[in-house]
Amino acid sequence: MDTINMKWLLLIISLPTNSATARMRIWRALKALGCGALRDGVYLLPDNASHQRQLTELSDETLREGGSAWLLTVHAQTETEIDAYRALFDRSNDYAELLQAFSAARETLAALAPQEINRVLRKLRRDYEALCAIDYFPNEISLQTEAAWIDFVNAAELILSPNEPHAIDTSIPQLDPNRYQGRIWATRRHLWVDRVASAWLIRRFIDRKARFLWLDSPGDCPAKALGFDFDGATFTHIGDRVTFEVLLASFGLDSDLGLARLGAMVHALDVGNGYVPEANGFEAVLSGARQRATDDDQLLAELEVVLDSLYAHFSDDPQTPETKR
Question: How many structural domains comprise the chain?
Answer without folding.
Answer: 3
